[in-house]
């Protein structure tokens, strides 16, 4: 069955340090993978997506994610965290081979806290 | 930058009524619009994708007759929750993109969301 897991409810990082927000998935076919961020005062925003091609995807605000097919992971990363990166991050997977239609599944979200 | 306006931002209504939520792209032509639902415990769900001038594509498990989506112009999409009940209470978010299809690299621009409360 199609599923997405964000194993960490919360991630704490010091400003300037690299950050990783983890995401693993399970689908029957080739997935489309997405990362979204929800800021407290700016609403939901799209960060990046993987469709095909280069496994390393670069997105908005200096974020990137690496598609790892063997580990079925799509972890979000940033080399140097900013306090303004503090927000709620959602990973999502869209299953293209599911009979009867498409379905996008979101992870439960990971709250990132970046301390100055 | 690209702005998506969602209206209303908050609506409270009685059970059994229908509620319409508007999503407008203010400074670009939105060939594709998306509707999301965020549940009280923060989990998100993509409800449907709509392309201008054609019927919306609903995600599996979303009731088409319950959640009517219209994308009649390049700047406006509407979501109508028909015969709303308390379990439909949620935060509904729209987004718009300037290109069609999942392979596009055009970003999605999100509205601020509509909080719907059904009494």
TL;DR?
By secondary structure, chain A is mostly beta strands. Chain A has strands spanning 3-5, 10-14, 19-21, 24-26, 31-39, 43-50, 56-58, 64-68, 73-78, 87-95, 103-106, 110-115. In chain A, 0% of the residues lie in helices and 55% in strands.
Principal-axis shape of chain B = globular
Largest sheet of chain B: 7 strands, mixed
Question: In percent, how helical is the residue content of chain A?
Answer: under 10%
Which structural class is indicated by helix and strand composition of chain A? mainly beta
Mean pLDDT of chain A: 91
Distance between the termini of chain A: 41 Å
Following the backbone from N to C, one meets helices and strands of chain B in this order, namely EEEEEEEEEEE
What is the tally of helical segments of chain A? 0
What is the C-alpha radius of gyration of chain A, as a whole number of Å?
A: 14 Å
What percentage of the residues of chain A does DSSP assign to strands (E)?
Answer: over 45%
Could you list the spans of chain A in which at least 5 consecutive residues all have pLDDT below 50?
A: none
Ends distance of chain B: 37 Å
Map the helices and strands.
The complex is a heterodimer of chains A (116) and B (119).
Chain A: E1 3-5, E2 10-14, E3 19-21, E4 24-26, E5 31-39, E6 43-50, E7 56-58, E8 64-68, E9 73-78, E10 87-95, E11 103-106, E12 110-115
Parallel strand pairs in A: 2-12
Antiparallel strand pairs in A: 1-4, 3-9, 5-6, 5-10, 7-8, 8-9, 10-11, 10-12
Chain B: E1 4-7, E2 10-13, E3 19-25, E4 32-38, E5 44-51, E6 57-58, E7 67-73, E8 76-81, E9 90-97, E10 109-110, E11 114-118
Parallel strand pairs in B: 2-11
Antiparallel strand pairs in B: 1-3, 3-8, 4-5, 4-9, 5-6, 7-8, 9-10, 9-11
């Amino acid at each position: 069955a199609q599923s997405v897991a964000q194993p960490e409810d919360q991630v704490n990082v010091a400003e300037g340090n690299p950050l990783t927000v983890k995401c693993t998935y399970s689908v029957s076919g080739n997935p489309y993978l997405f990362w979204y961020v929800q800021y407290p005062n700016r609403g939901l925003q799209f960060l990046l997506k993987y469709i095909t091609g280069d496994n390393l995807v670069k997105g908005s605000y200096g974020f990137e994610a690496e598609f790892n097919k063997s580990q079925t992971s799509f972890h979000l990363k940033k080399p140097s965290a900013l306090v303004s990166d503090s927000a709620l991050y959602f990973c999502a997977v869209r299953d293209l081979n599911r009979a009867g239609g498409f379905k996008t599944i979101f992870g439960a979200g990971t709250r990132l806290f970046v301390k100055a | 930058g690209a702005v998506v306006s969602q209206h209303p931002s908050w609506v409270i209504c009685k059970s059994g009524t229908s509620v319409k939520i508007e999503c407008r792209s203010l400074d670009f032509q939105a060939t594709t619009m998306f509707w999301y639902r965020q549940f009280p415990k923060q989990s998100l769900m993509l409800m449907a994708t709509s392309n201008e001038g054609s019927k919306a594509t609903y995600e599996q498990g979303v009731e088409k007759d319950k959640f009517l989506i219209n994308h009649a112009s390049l700047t406006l999409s509407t979501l109508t929750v028909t015969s709303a009940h308390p379990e439909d209470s949620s935060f509904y978010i729209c987004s718009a993109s300037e290109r069609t299809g999942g392979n596009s690299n055009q970003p999605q621009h999100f509205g601020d969301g509509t909080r719907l409360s059904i009494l």
